[in-house]
Write a structure and sequence with these properties.
The protein is mainly alpha-helical and about 300 residues long. It is built from eleven helices and two strands. It has two domains: about 10-55; about 60-300, MetI-like (MetI-like fold), CATH 1.10.3720. About 70% of the residues lie in helices and about 0% in strands. The radius of gyration is 25 Å and the shape is flat. The relative contact order is 0.15. The model has no long low-confidence stretch (mean pLDDT about 85).
């Protein structure tokens, strides 16, 4: 009796097709990496050119006025963090509340209606949110809370950015909460726990990695927002350092937008336009650190069921 070797590799035509698909996917991944590296190198070249044209003391000058040769990094960094902080204070409870309701309380019919309605906010152009913050949030909210509020202020910009990132927190957190096994809920109910107690003490801790990831993603989105802060926070030509959210200010993205439009490229200090690349590089590094931190936190708290 003769033995015959069976080829388990499958049809040759299918194998060739799989190899072509694998090459296409590899090329797509490689191209994405090359684009990212190209962006970094373009920013790095402009940043080095900027640093060679200025004195380092100018990076700690009084305020951010690039056309006057004043490049105070503290100003745009502090204002960016202030707006991000206000945005998270607004968006975190609303986003988490919406996610908890959709995951634990809403019926299937209500979920089909409410989840797309919440995600519609993500489709609203940021310029619309900026005008909303300027024409409604400032006169009707900020002015009622603080009588000395300026027309352009960091608080209104922060609230506008917070509205913009609510769908991000709600969507990612809802997915994380829904991924928690139903057996944990049933075990909690079997021990006599109420619905809210199960949600707060069982479901949320089990989904903490996804919730934290949604928060960090929202922070990254808030830091990178441009149009809302450019419209609502004002200070297009520059800003002094302030910790008061009722006053106007300029963020990192707002500074870049101000320098990149109009005649700002050729007006004022020789290093003004090059500062755009330096700020962009700092923004890239800050976002990268947040993403790495997010990945580490998710790995640290992730639970497998």
């Amino acid at each position: 009796m003769t033995s015959q070797t069976i080829d388990l590799r499958g049809d040759p035509t299918r194998r060739r097709r799989e190899r072509r698909v694998r090459r296409w996917f590899f090329a797509a991944a490689g191209l994405s990496l090359l684009i990212s590296v190209g962006i970094v190198f373009s920013l790095l070249g402009g940043a080095i050119s900027f640093l060679t044209k200025i004195d380092w003391d100018q990076l700690w000058a009084n305020g951010w006025f690039p056309r006057r040769g004043r490049f105070d990094l503290r100003t745009i960094l502090v204002h960016t963090l202030l707006i991000t902080g206000v945005a998270i204070v607004v968006a975190a409870p609303l986003g988490l509340g919406a996610a908890a309701y959709l995951s634990e309380y809403a019926s299937k019919r209500a979920r089909r209606i409410l989840k797309p309605a919440i995600e519609v906010l993500a489709g609203i152009p940021s310029v619309v949110i900026g005008f909303f913050a300027l024409t409604f949030v400032t006169p009707d909210i900020m002015a009622n809370l603080w009588q000395s509020t300026e027309v352009f202020n960091l608080g209104a910009a922060g609230i506008g950015v917070g509205i913009l990132i609510i769908p991000l927190i709600a969507s990612v957190s809802e997915d994380a909460l829904s991924a928690v096994p139903g057996s944990l809920r049933q075990a909690s109910y079997g021990l006599g726990a109420k619905k809210w107690h199960t949600t707060v003490r069982v479901v949320l801790p089990a989904a903490v990695s996804g919730v934290i990831a949604s928060m960090i993603l929202a922070v990254s989105r808030a830091i990178g927002e441009t149009m809302v802060v450019a419209i609502a926070a004002g200070a297009a030509g520059g800003s002094l350092l302030t910790f008061n959210i009722t006053e106007g200010g300029q963020t990192m993205t707002g500074a870049m937008a101000s320098l990149a439009i109009g005649s700002d490229q050729v007006a004022g200090d020789n290093a003004a336009f090059q500062s755009l690349f330096f700020v962009g590089l700092l923004l890239f590094v800050l976002t990268l650190i947040l993403n790495l931190f997010s990945e580490r936190v998710v790995r640290r708290f992730r639970q497998k069921y």
